[in-house]
Structure formats: structure tokens, C-alpha cells
Design brief:
Number of domains: 2
Largest sheet: none
Number of helices: 10
Number of strands: 0
Strand content: under 5%
Shape: globular
CATH class of the largest domain: Mainly Alpha
CATH architecture of the largest domain: Orthogonal Bundle
Oligomer: single chain
Distance between the termini: 54 Å
Length: about 200
């Protein structure tokens, strides 16, 4: 397959994935999580139930928009960073890529937040998704630092601090905080790099 074909194929996959995610959010916001079926999500997104499950293994993951592809993307983004780069700068680059205007939709994130806050049954899936992301990043960071994550707490604390900082920046925006989310992330990572004193 040629490079342009590859790019077109990936774009179509992203569009399909996003259509399923948006359909799931819309339906859950309209009717409630328990009342929505995967068949309804697939129909709203204009795909077959089988296609839905090719992208999202569960109804919960479709609502959260979380797929194994997210973890693969994080791996690829970190692998692309220079090995000599300070690890917080590498993590910050991953965050910036995921918050870029081409991937970050404030309205979609606000809708996802509304749905999650109104549907307590999504809590376990959200926590599980966050733990999986944190574990993958911890392994990657440990490898980059040449540390065994079972012997050193540094990789996990680095990742947990960075992810908590990003969540705080996004919540700052949703709560009416000043500036952009990118500016908040810049400030947060400066605090992580230089301390809070």
C-alpha cells in the first residue's frame, strides 16, 4: 500500500472511530447509559455492530472514546522523541500532540465530561482506562530512564504526576479558568520541572 493510501486509510479509520464515539455520547446523553445498546450506537454511527466492536471492545469504551490504539499512539509518540531529551519534556510533547487542534475538541471533551459525571456506572471503566494508560506510560518511561519499574518508583511517580497535572489543566478550563488549556499545561509542566516552592 502506498503512503497516500495509508494516510487515507488511517484518516477513514479515525473518522469511523470518532463517529462511533460521538454516537455513543449522544445516545447516552439522550437516554441514559443503561437504556442504550451497542446496536443503537452502531446504527446511529452508520456502521455495523461488528465494525463497532472492531474499534471499541465494549459499550463503555465507545462512550469514553478509549481504544488500544490510544496506547499504541502514546508508544509511537514517545519512541519518536530523542532518547537524550529530559523525560518530562518527552511526556509534555505527547500531551501537546494529544491536545493539538487536530485531535482536541473542547466541545466533545465537555460532552464526554457531562456524560461521565451523570453516569456513575462509567466510573470503573474510566478508572480502568486511566490505569492502563498510566501503566503503559510507566513502562515506556522506565525503559527510557533505564530503570526497573518494580525497583524504582520514579517512573510511576513521573507519569502519575504528569497525568494528574494534565487532568487538572483540563478541569481548570472546564471550571472557567483563564487562558487556554495549552497555556495551563505549559505552566503545569514548569511547576513539575522546577518544583512548587
Amino acid at each position: 500500500m502506498s503512503e497516500p493510501d495509508c494516510g487515507l486509510r488511517e484518516r477513514k479509520k479515525r473518522e469511523t472511530r470518532m463517529a462511533i464515539h460521538r454516537a455513543a455520547l449522544d445516545l447516552v446523553e439522550e437516554a441514559g447509559f443503561d437504556a442504550v445498546t451497542t446496536d443503537q450506537i452502531a446504527a446511529r454511527a452508520g456502521v455495523s455492530p461488528r465494525t463497532l466492536f472492531n474499534y471499541f471492545p465494549t459499550k463503555e469504551s465507545a462512550v469514553l472514546g478509549a481504544t488500544p490504539a490510544d496506547l499504541d499512539e502514546m508508544r509511537a509518540l514517545l519512541d519518536a522523541r530523542p532518547a537524550s531529551e529530559p523525560i518530562l519534556q518527552s511526556i509534555r510533547a505527547i500531551v501537546e500532540a494529544r491536545l493539538s487542534p487536530t485531535t482536541y475538541d473542547p466541545q466533545l471533551r465537555a460532552q464526554r465530561r457531562r456524560v461521565i459525571l451523570s453516569e456513575p456506572s462509567l466510573g470503573p471503566a474510566l478508572v480502568g482506562n486511566n490505569i492502563r494508560a498510566e501503566n503503559v506510560l510507566t513502562e515506556l518511561v522506565a525503559d527510557r530512564l533505564g530503570l526497573d519499574p518494580r525497583e524504582s518508583v520514579r517512573p510511576r511517580v513521573t507519569v502519575a504526576s504528569a497525568l494528574a497535572a494534565v487532568r487538572a489543566c483540563i478541569e481548570h478550563q472546564h471550571s472557567g479558568g483563564s487562558g487556554t488549556v495549552e497555556e495551563a499545561v505549559d505552566e503545569a509542566f514548569l511547576l513539575l520541572e522546577h518544583g512548587f516552592a
